[in-house]
């Protein structure tokens, strides 16, 4: 009998059980739930504002910038550079910030062109996306600070799961200057940029070698922040503070290790200062006579008096009052119940995933609180330096939104969740008490988010009842649904005259600059979408 050859030996059959299977990471679905929550909570809270009429420069910029750069996007960069001397004379720099602002106007107008939505709706959709990015950036910052190992390589922190509820509740239309109402897309993105730069600084703590690519990126990022806008400048002190908090409070590094591992932050400053210092010197010289844009004024003398006002500007009950410009008792109505019904399924998913989260100890909770203060304090200080806000603070306008609102809201959310994490820390409670306390805190945040949703509804209803807002709402609708008939032209010409009538009496006669700006903006939009002037009785 001969032995079988190799070719005659039957190959073993591999069954499904015999195939090696990579163990699935159980925390991946939990991370996906956090991302989904970070998207849905801001959308729910901001949804009542989706048809809010445009105000201030948005009445014109969406049409003028959007129509121009949608047709010729290559002009965007050149115009931002060419306009630098003009804006320096007004007291600000911001070439990169203007590029982003104009790009957002272009995206807004592109949505109107593509989907036929009125520009005010497109504008709010863009702001919602920016608010989602800000919420995600807040989660990234918290995770980067609290992680004792490789960030995002393990189960998410409980803090990351709770933060979307807290951040979402801060998106309140607290007056007409709030970032939730005015330039939301730009300032939500600016705040997200600030938080992400700080998160990058936190993640590089303890690394004594950055490598040439990361080092060059840090220098370029610092220079870009100097050319973005004043709120973006807060990324520099925040990065330094956050790196210090993680090194000392979370990782327990020595002072020598902390300073030695702060190379990323040092390179940020190395790129920032050569741009920022000459710019501020030029602006100080040109604005010495008080002729610059008042919104960029810096008044250090009144800062301390306004600082308490700005430090509390993110507190939801104060913002609810400003949203309706009056007592917020009306806000506690049926809209709150509707918002709660929509938000509660997210709480159910949170409760189901609760055992899978990594619960922070009190040391980590303290680090998170320090991070929240590090975000909140510089933002509030920048707001308190503004002379207009100092006057409003002296007049008792608590909870009023401004450009610092986006960043202050994120800082306030971090501080709020830090308090909840410290009170209900697992290391100081039984498992049942920890779960019940955490769930009670989340339910409280959900109620706050629901009331914020109702407050936004009140703000939109109040603004929509005003005649100028009605005119701009109808203008947006007429541009989106352009009627080429004589009746359509008549309606648009009537709107043009109603816009003139809404101006102050001294600006109605003749062809005043504001009327000229209106014609230029709406004609740019109507020519782009319908190849016709907005009103045949006006200038073509």
Note down, in words, how this protein is organized.
- By secondary structure, the protein is mainly α.
- It has 22 helices and no strands.
- The model is unreliable at 1-9 (pLDDT under 50).
- Keywords: Membrane, Transmembrane, Transmembrane helix.
Question: How is this structure best summarized?
Answer:
The chain crosses the membrane at residues 125-146, 158-175, 181-202, 214-244, 264-283, 328-347, 367-385, 405-425, 437-455. The protein is mainly α and 540 residues long. The protein has helices spanning 28-46, 58-71, 75-82, 84-90, 95-115, 119-146, 158-168, 184-203, 212-226, 235-250, 255-260, 263-286, 303-311, 316-323, 334-353, 362-384, 387-394, 405-423, 431-464, 467-480, 486-502, 513-530.
Sum up the structure in keywords.
540 residues; mainly alpha
Structural class: mainly alpha
Instruction: Name the overall outline.
Output: globular
What is the strand tally?
0
Profile the largest sheet.
none
Mean pLDDT: 85
Helix content: 55-70%
Provide a count of the helices. 22
Strand content: under 5%
**Poorly predicted tracts of residues:** 1-9
- How far apart the termini lie comes to 103 Å
Radius of gyration, taken over Cα atoms and rounded to an integer in Å = 27 Å
Taken in chain order, the helices and strands follow as HHHHHHHHHHHHHHHHHHHHHH
């Amino acid at each position: 009998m001969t032995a079988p050859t190799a070719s005659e030996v039957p190959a073993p059959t591999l069954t499904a059980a015999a195939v090696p299977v990579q163990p699935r990471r159980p925390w991946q679905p939990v991370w996906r739930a956090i991302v989904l929550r970070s998207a849905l909570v801001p959308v729910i809270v901001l949804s009542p504002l989706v048809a809010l009429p445009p105000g201030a420069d948005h009445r014109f910029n969406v049409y003028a910038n959007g129509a121009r750069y949608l047709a010729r996007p290559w002009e965007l960069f050149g115009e931002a550079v060419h306009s630098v001397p003009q804006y320096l004379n007004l007291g600000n720099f911001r070439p990169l910030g203007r590029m982003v602002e104009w790009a957002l106007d272009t995206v807004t107008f592109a949505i109107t062109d593509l989907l036929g939505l009125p520009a005010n709706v497109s504008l709010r959709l863009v702001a919602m996306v920016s608010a989602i990015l800000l919420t995600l950036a807040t989660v990234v910052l918290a995770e980067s600070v609290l992680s004792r190992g490789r960030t995002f390589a393990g189960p998410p922190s409980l803090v990351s799961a709770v933060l979307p509820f807290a951040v979402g509740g801060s998106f309140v239309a607290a007056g007409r200057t709030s970032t939730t109402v005015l330039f939301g897309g730009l300032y939500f993105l600016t705040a997200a940029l600030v938080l992400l730069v700080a998160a990058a600084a936190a993640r590089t703590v303890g690394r004594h070698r950055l490598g040439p690519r990361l080092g060059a990126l840090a220098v370029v990022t610092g220079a870009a922040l100097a050319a973005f806008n004043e709120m973006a400048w807060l990324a520099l002190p925040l990065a330094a503070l956050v790196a210090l908090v993680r090194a000392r409070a979370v990782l327990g590094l020595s002072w020598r290790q902390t300073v030695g591992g702060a190379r990323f932050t040092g390179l940020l400053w190395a790129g920032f200062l050569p741009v920022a210092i000459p710019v501020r010197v030029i602006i100080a010289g040109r604005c010495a006579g008080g002729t610059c844009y008042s919104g960029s004024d810096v008044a250090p003398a009144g800062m301390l008096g306004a600082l308490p006002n700005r430090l509390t500007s993110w507190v939801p009950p104060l913002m609810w009052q400003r949203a309706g410009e009056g007592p917020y008792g009306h806000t506690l109505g049926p809209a709150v119940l509707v918002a709660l019904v929509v938000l509660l399924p997210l709480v159910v998913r949170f409760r189901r995933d609760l055992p899978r989260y990594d619960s922070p100890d009190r040391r980590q909770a303290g680090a998170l609180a320090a991070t929240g203060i590090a975000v909140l304090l510089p933002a509030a200080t920048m707001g308190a330096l503004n002379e207009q806000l100092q006057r409003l603070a002296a007049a008792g306008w608590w909870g009023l939104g401004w450009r610092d609102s986006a960043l202050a809201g994120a800082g306030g959310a971090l501080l709020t969740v830090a308090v909840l994490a410290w009170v209900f820390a697992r290391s100081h409670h039984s498992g049942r008490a920890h779960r019940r306390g955490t769930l009670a805190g989340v339910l409280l945040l959900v109620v706050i988010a629901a009331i914020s949703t109702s407050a936004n509804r009140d703000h939109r209803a109040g603004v929509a009842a005003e005649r100028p807002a009605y005119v701009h709402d109808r203008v947006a609708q007429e541009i989106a649904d352009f009627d080429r008939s004589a009746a359509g032209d008549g309606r648009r010409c009537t709107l043009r005259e109603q816009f003139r009538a809404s101006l102050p009496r001294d600006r109605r006669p003749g062809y005043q600059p504001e009327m000229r700006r209106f014609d230029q903006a709406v004609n740019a939009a109507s020519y782009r979408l319908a190849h016709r002037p907005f009103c045949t009785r006006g200038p073509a």
